Amino acid sequence: MTQKSPERLVIIGSGPAAWTAAIYAARADLDPLVFEGEPSRNMIPGGQLMYTTDVENYPGFPEGIMGPEMMERFRDQACRFDTRIVGEDIASVDFSRKPFRLNPSYGAEFEAHAVVIATGARANWLGLPNEERLAQSGGGVSACAVCDGALPMFRNETLAVVGGGDSAMEEATYLTKFASEVILIHRRDEFRASKIMADRALANPKIRVLWNTEVTDVLGDDAVVGLEVRNNQTGETSEVACGGVFVAIGHTPNTAFLGDEVELTESGYIRTPTPWRTVTTVPGVFAAGDVMDSYYRQAITAAGTGCMAALEAERWLAEEGLSEVAEVPVDEKAEAPTGAEEDEPVEAAARG
Fold first, then answer.
1. Residue 277: how many CB atoms within 10 A of its CB?
2. Active site residues
3. Residue ranges of the alpha helices (H) in 178-297?
4. pTM for this prediction
5. From CA 348, how far away is CA 80, in angstroms rounded?
6. How far apart are alpha carbons 254 and 202 in whole angstroms?
7. Which of 86, 113, 68, 24 minimizes the C-alpha distance to 308?
8. Percentage of residues in the chain with pLDDT exceeding 70?
């Protein structure tokens, strides 16, 4: 049987960056193939917005939109332009030779001329069962104050922020615009944040700090009503009343599957050497969204870099003479790129 022709462009991920890249690439006739991933304990296809209720800061939705609905619309728009979708993860890659090699979770290895990595970053959680449940149900647990802090459910409430780094200081300070009080909970007796950020938070009259304190449970059935906390110096436990909790203990970029194939930053994000560009240290491999952005981490900035990555991939393919790829033999066209069975075809634009 004749070997399959390499894919022109593979997009790994399924958040705003991935779907925006797919829309642009599909409209440029690059016939992109998207690996949207599989549900797991830490992530589900669609990324962080799948854990977000009302999205009110994305232009074009004056009344707001639910995070999962927004991601479904992004996906449907990509499908409208014949984007092909596989519901698997990419388990490993080999960028040391061209075409690039990619290994899905279950299917056979395949080749690609260009790759956009848009696998995002997952918020680090405390690991408490009720925390996870309320985060997924929109019950008042969040990992992004800029995304959710202005929602009506948090206004004029006492809110808790867990963490001690710069992100926690930023979250707490930002929330003082809406909350009646912000309780900053840190497990040590001093912040890890930079002095200027810590001083700014400590000087804010609406911020109260609980030092040497750990959260042991999130209280509430349908919505957060408080926290159970423990002083790790005395062992004393108590309850703190609050109407919401923001966990600010960092993010972990989803880059483990890359191994050493592209250069990462010290924090594990994909490094893009040229400012305002999405090309990685491997020509032909591009990064978009939170997997390469440890600073903004917003849906709109992720979508913007998805656009950039698709445009750069299109131009790179043209420069390499790869814009037009030889036709795949007829007997191969019926097969899914992952080696799926005949009754499990790759999803195409029929949904659109």
1. 14
2. 144, 147-148
3. 195-202
4. 0.80
5. 9
6. 33
7. 24
8. 91
Looking up residue 147, the CATH number of its domain turns out to be 3.50.50.60
* Residues sharing a CB contact under 8 Å with residue 241, sequence separation 6 or more, in sequence order: 158, 225, 226
Instruction: Read off the amino acid at residue 255.
Output: T
Q: Are 122 and 42 in contact (CB under 8 A)?
A: yes
Residue 183 within a domain: yes
* Percent of all residues in the chain with a pLDDT value above 90, rounded to a whole number: 77
CA dihedral for 49, 307, 118, 262, sign (positive or negative) = negative
* Same structural domain, 261 and 118: yes
Find the mean pLDDT for residues 114-138.
Answer: 93
The encoded tokens of residue 293 equal 């952005």
What is the tally of structural domains in the chain? Answer: 2
Q: Is residue 1 assigned to a domain? A: no
Domain-terminating residue out of 217, 247, 277 = 247
Residue 52 pLDDT greater than 60, yes or no: yes
Model pLDDT, residue 88: 94
Of the candidates 247, 266, 285, which is a domain's last residue? Answer: 247
Instruction: Tell me if 120 sits within 8 A of 254, measured CB to CB.
Output: yes
d(CA 145, CA 225): 18
Considering the domain boundaries, does residue 21 fall inside one?
yes
- Domain-located, residue 2: no
Whether residues 141 and 87 fall in one domain: no
pLDDT at 148 over 80: yes
**What are phi and psi for residue 261, nearest 5 degrees?**
-75, -25
Q: Which domain holds residue 330?
A: 7-122+251-351
Whether 58 contacts 38, CB under 8 Å: no
Mean pLDDT of 117-145: 92
How far is it, in rounded angstroms, from Cα 168 to Cα 340? 45
Q: Which amino acid is at 13?
A: G
| Whole-angstrom distance, CA of residue 165 vs CA of residue 146 | 16
* Same domain membership, residue 112 and residue 17: yes
Q: Are residues 131 and 175 in the same domain?
A: yes
Q: Residues 227, 269: one domain?
A: no
